[in-house]
Amino acid sequence: MREIVISDGSIRLGQFLKLANVVESGAGARSLLESGDVQVNGEVENRRGRQLQRGDVVAVGGAELRVG
User: Of all helices (H) and strands (E), which one includes residue 11?
Assistant: First the structure.
């Protein structure tokens, strides 16, 4: 599991996916989320604006990313 450190207490899912280099743009994040391939804490998530907190785990493409 890879930890992605954020500077604030929370981050939006779309921004997090860009920060983690999973997607290159907001449009890429939107299409990835619409495909149903992203899970947050074990549940499928399709909202790009979902607020993530430190300790949340995002699973995408076989990789797990923890918000740090």
Answer: strand 10-12
What's the pLDDT score for residue 22? 94
CB distance 57 to 40 below 8 Å: yes
Topology of domain 2-67 in CATH is 3.10.290
| CA–CA separation, 37 and 32 (whole Å) | 6
Check if the beta carbon of residue 13 is closer than 8 Å to that of residue 49. yes
pLDDT of residue 35: 93
pLDDT, average across residues 2-6: 95
What's the pTM value of the predicted model, to 2 decimals? 0.92
d(CA 10, CA 35): 24
